[in-house]
Design a protein that fits this description.
With about 500 residues, the protein is of the alpha+beta class. It has 2 domains: about 260 residues, Beta Barrel (Butyryl-CoA Dehydrogenase, subunit A, domain 2); about 180 residues, Butyryl-CoA Dehydrogenase, subunit A, domain 3 (Up-down Bundle), CATH 1.20.140.10. The protein is about 45% helix and about 15% strand. It contains 15 helices and 14 strands. Strands 2-1-10-11-7-6 form a 6-stranded mixed beta sheet, with no helix packed on it. The protein is globular and about 75 Å long. About 50% of the residues are buried. The structure holds flavin-adenine dinucleotide.
């Protein structure tokens, strides 16, 4: 089934989650103004899947053979990886962050882990996941990814925490299922999801076995509480983007929540749980690349419009040209890593395709750091007006509006209203609370930079590079370099080849 955005919004009305926003218990998530931009942004993933021109990127074949949303699919080819990357970029051009690709990333990471569990133990793990994915595809669900635990004291392992509930874990195993408890700290789109996928966020050792749990929980299951921030800046006339499209992030508390066995995918299998966490990260970092490229597209377009409104012609001013090229280079540079990660995608033993890990991690690392350059470049080309403009209320003040309209124009043929709109758009995306949100999600979302660096080094064929240099030192012998250095062997100490 492919729901429309309106049907998705309507479907939220059939649920009764316990959601708090700004200290208030929310009566109806679908009708809560503070969550509206988030529902709109997720809604784009639904409506876009019904637009024929976007079908290649947004729609694929589900497990049953019926069409499904790309963000609920298992990758079957490298082309699927490219299509997913494009779909993320497309939806994020319009919604900033549209959340649902996280589900795709979790499904694929879980696919790889549960397949191994079933191979090793003969358990139903993989079949349960398949049944759940089929259920999600058939009902076109929005599923929040509850991975990042509260974590407590970062220097201690989950089982060493003074407060064990700072990590979600299994408290009880019963004949019909498990009981989980604890807190997940940062869940994008938390309030307006249908369900949550609970996943472990770090490597678990044997002593942390109870924390190595992956399962699915309906948002309105007994014992689930969602404590959310508003999505973006709803109701703020200056928020030209995030009053309409943004994401909330939420704390999700699991207070002794019962999960039936058919919704439990990992329970104590620490090795496969670790594989799930790292492989999810590769899928997700690949998605982050598409998401931030969509954001880059917005800054490039708005930056060019702001220069024009200021009366400056890009073609004629070399330093502005340089800055725009820099913005384009950054955006397309990390996106190219996403394309490379797709093109060199790896087929997993479980039968799905995963983005190549080094390019996926490098792309995410680039954007994590360069988001600050992107903001700076947008600020440089725009000028200080983006934070200096009088508030939108002044646009309707008869005492000041005519003066502002006449005197705060840049290029004479560009109306003040247009210049103000573009300036506020850039402020919203780069210099407001929303702008800060985009910095922090780029930096930490999908893992902090150190996590990417570790993965790059772990996957990089360093030995091959050493072998290459060794073989060159050995005067080009291609099969050399795998054993101890041959530099000192007779005949190899110089390019003439001494014999003694
Ligand atoms: C806007 C936003 C949306 C997000 N959405 C989701 C979501 O939908 N679902 C989800 O599960 N997660 C989500 N995340 C969470 C994201 O994955 C985490 O922020 C990220 O993994 C970092 O974890 P943390 O925030 O707990 O920071 P920390 O783990 O506290 O890290 C802070 C710093 O300390 C360092 N550090 C931490 N522990 C150690 C240690 N033991 N030794 C040395 N250094 C250490 C880190 O490298 C980092 O530099 C989101 C994050 C953001 C910002």
């Amino acid at each position: 089934m492919l729901m429309s955005a309106e049907e998705y919004r309507e479907s939220l009305r059939s649920l009764s989650p316990r959601v708090y926003v700004g200290g208030d218990l929310v009566a109806s998530v679908a009708d809560e103004p503070r969550l509206e931009p988030g529902i709109n942004a997720v809604g784009l993933t639904y409506d876009f899947a019904r637009v024929p021109d976007y079908a290649k990127a947004m729609v694929t074949t589900g497990l049953s053979g019926a069409p499904t949303n790309r963000f609920l699919a298992i990758n079957r080819s490298r082309e699927d990886l490219l299509d997913k990357l494009e779909a993320v970029r497309l939806t994020c051009q319009y919604g900033g962050c549209t959340q649902r690709y996280l589900t795709h990333d979790a499904f694929n990471g879980l696919w790889e882990a549960t397949w191994r569990i079933t191979q090793r133990t003969g358990s139903e793990s993989h079949e349960r996941l398949k049944a759940y994915i089929a259920h999600a595809q058939a009902n076109d669900l929005a599923i929040g990814i509850a991975m990042t635990d509260g974590k407590g004291d970062r220097s201690k392992r989950p089982s060493e925490q003074a407060e064990p509930l700072s990590y979600v874990h299994v408290r009880e195993r019963r004949a019909d299922g498990i009981v989980i408890a604890g807190v997940k700290a940062i869940v994008t789109g938390g309030p307006y999801m249908h369900e949550f996928l609970v996943l472990p966020c770090r490597r678990m050792r044997e002593e942390d076995r109870d924390f190595a749990v992956a399962c699915a929980v309906p948002i309105d299951a007994a014992g689930v509480t969602v404590v959310s921030r508003p999505a973006g800046r709803p109701g703020n006339a200056a928020a030209k983007f995030s009053a309409k499209f943004a994401q909330s992030v939420a704390v999700v508390h699991f207070d002794d929540v019962f999960v039936p066995w058919d919704r439990v995918f990992i329970d104590g299998e620490t090795e496969e749980a670790h594989l799930m966490t790292t492989n999810y990260a590769s899928h997700h970092r690949h998605s982050c690349i598409g998401a931030r490229a969509g954001f880059g597209d917005l800054l490039i377009g708005a930056g060019a419009m702001m220069m024009e409104a200021n009366g400056l012609e890009l073609d004629r001013i070399s330093h502005l040209k340089d800055k725009m090229v820099e913005l384009i280079k950054i955006t397309e540079g990390f996106y190219a890593c996403g394309v490379a990660a797709s093109t060199f995608g790896e087929e997993d033993a479980a039968g799905n395709f995963r983005p190549e890990q080094i390019y996926s991690n490098i792309g995410k690392l680039l954007l994590a750091n360069q988001i600050y350059d992107m903001h700076r470049l947008a600020h440089e080309v725009s000028g200080g007006l983006i934070v200096g403009l009088p508030s939108p209320e002044e646009d309707h003040n008869p005492a000041t509006a005519p003066m502002i309209d006449a005197l705060l124009r840049g290029r004479p043929d560009v109306p003040y209203a247009h210049r103000a709109n573009v300036a506020r758009f850039i402020e919203d995306l780069t210099a407001s609370e929303t702008g800060g949100w985009y910095s922090v999600i780029s930096l930490h979302g999908g893992g902090s930079p150190e996590a990417m660096k570790m993965e790059i080094l772990r996957n990089y064929p360093l030995q091959d590079r050493k072998d290459l240099v060794q073989s060159l030192l050995d005067r080009g012998a291609l099969d050399l370099g795998k054993g101890p250095s041959r530099d000192k062997q007779p005949g190899r100490c110089c390019d003439k080849g001494c014999t003694e």
